[in-house]
Amino acid sequence: MTSLPFDDRDGDIWLDGVFVPWREARLHVLSHGLHYGGGVFEGERVYDGRVFELTAHSRRLHSSARELGFRIPFDVAELDGATRELVSRLRIRDGYVRPVAWRGSEQLGVSGAGTSVHVAIAAWEWPHVFSAAARNQGITLATSRWRRPSPDTAPVHAKASSLYNICTLARDAAAADGYDDALLLDFRGHLAEATGANLFLVIDGALHTPLADVFLSGITRQTVIALAAELGIAVHERHIDPAELAHADEVFLTGTAYEVQPVRAVDGKPYEVGAVTQSLAEAYTRLVHTPAAYGAKSPTSAAVDESNTS
Questions:
Q1: What are φ and ψ of residue 301, in 5° steps?
Q2: pTM above 0.85, yes or no
Q3: Which domains, from first to last, does the chain contain?
Q4: For 188-212, how does the pLDDT look when each residue is reduced to its tens digit (9 = 90+)?
Q5: 23: region left, alpha or beta (phi > 0 left; psi from -120 to 50 alpha)
Q6: Is 297 a catalytic residue?
Q7: What distance in Å separates the CA atoms of residue 251 and residue 274, rounded to the nearest whole number?
Q8: CB-facing half-sphere around the CA of 289: CA atoms within 13 A
Q9: Across-strand partners of 12?
Q10: Higher pLDDT among residues 3 and 233, named by residue
């Protein structure tokens, strides 16, 4: 199915505090963020007309901006309110929300000082990334030559647009070789994550996930860790050598877009979509479709508020 290009759709986009027609939501070609990577963003999911962990995402957008040295000119409550109104205006039931903030065009040089900050929020219907077959049977990964950088060389705890160059290069190379996604190592050679999702291994019934010291500890990752605790599944967050993939019984990814996505093979090594992956996927689906999950402040929201980097 061919989708519409993202610059030619009906509807509204929230831009710098007001709703504008979709096709009129523009930035200048000499915006600092476009030329020097001064942009941050979020990805949020809409289930049954509600945005899951909305406040946690809005807080993280602020945190990412601070990591890049600029301030979002709208507070968390304003971002939450604009997002809810946008989803309601567009009558989205199951979809995706993309908030983004970037430096403006007051000056064009390496320094970002003196630039304004612009914020936009867009939303569209988008129920799933992968087909039903891929969601049930798993996807394939290929280990990329690209690696997650060291914290002293990049703002690794920001959801920064500039850091996704690595993901684009890795994902496109994997797709060209017939894989669904790429698996990235970190600068030390430890397992890190996929191009837009966190990694979990199931070894002897327990979850093992890379320590999130050079990449984002995703909001879905935190949610799944909490669900595992409720189900009595042990979780080990640690540095994991790639050789340990040989000892894994199951592998899966987590992310706002991916949800809980089984992996059926890494570099040609097959894995079963086993009981642990299935139980967590089912628990996650139940949670996001439970109205009570959108009420009081959740453990995930608290974690994001505390750390400002997760």
A1: -60, -40
A2: yes
A3: 12-125 (3.30.470.10), 132-307 (3.20.10.10)
A4: 999 999 999 999 999 999 999 999 9
A5: alpha
A6: no
A7: 9
A8: 9
A9: 21
A10: 233
